[in-house]
Amino acid sequence: MAKLILRDGTELSDYGKPYFVAEVNSSHNGDVAVAKRMIDAAAEAGCQCVKFQSWSAESLYAAEYYKANPISKRFFVKFSLSEDQLMDMAKYCRSKGVQYCSTPYSKKEVDFLLDECEAPFVKIASMETNNHPYLRYIAKKGAPIVFSTGMSTIEEVKKAVEVIEDAGNSQICLLHCISIYPPEMNTIHLNNILGLRELFPNYPIGFSDHSIGCQIANAATALGAALIEKHLTLDHKKIGMDNQMAMEPEDLKNLVNGCNDVCEAMGSKERVVLQAEVEQKAKMRRSVIAARDLKAGQVLTADDLDAKRPGTGISPDRIDSMIGMTVTRDITADELLKESDIK
């Protein structure tokens, strides 16, 4: 089974309990106090990691774009967090017993994330699939990589993985992802988790969930997702980049608990009759009864026998072999037969 060991020693593997990542993105609106409340909420929900976005206005878009879209630049300046603030987030995460991670958008941000913040892995956004020089740079850092595959053809994903491997890094977790916020149910294609696992058997496969609700994450867990990433907000009614599809704290807690329950319920492929079920047999299974009054010496026919609860007598799987046997005593209709009643 494919496994990935993160820098803090945490193991990601298919068909185990998922590693839960609460995606904060910009839902903190540039407010450190709000961001810390979100970390508190993620920790309380049972997430193992809280992920931020390390972008700045300069690392996202070219200057030409901002000339045509000046409001966008003001937005990104307002909602981005500085290195000092991100370091504060990393320290605060650890004080709350969760790991800090981020999605970097430049080499400088990669270095800061891994060398200064000491994140357990680096998250690569779906938009970077065809950015091979950047993938190569990240791969050479030698850290575990969690890579979203939204907006990408399978050939693009294969090539991206090849670039990372050729740079000497085989520490990869691929995430099935649909880069729509939120996607329609019929566009999610969760079976892609199975498809990615077939194509990349050496790497655990997870799911970056942009759907509304818990059910798709639950289903991804049933398909063996090693990691579940879900966007978090303190209030999805507020205006924000993805607040409308992000989960509020109590819902995130329900999602984590639900996924863990699903994982536990999946159990084994081997059929096992539990002791509690064995104890139910006497109550719930049937025993052979007389379908009508029977006389001593009578030879049994199929019409003479039936089966009803409880299961404390002769098992009904013996009815066929009982046909043609002789009754040893008078038996009343609906009476359970005993071994001594036939010969």
UniProtKB/TrEMBL annotation:
Domain AFP-like as annotated: residue spans: 287-343
GO molecular function: N-acylneuraminate-9-phosphate synthase activity
Organism: Bacteroides uniformis
Matches recorded under Pfam families: NeuB (PF03102), SAF (PF08666)
GO biological process: carbohydrate biosynthetic process
Protein name: N-acylneuraminate-9-phosphate synthase
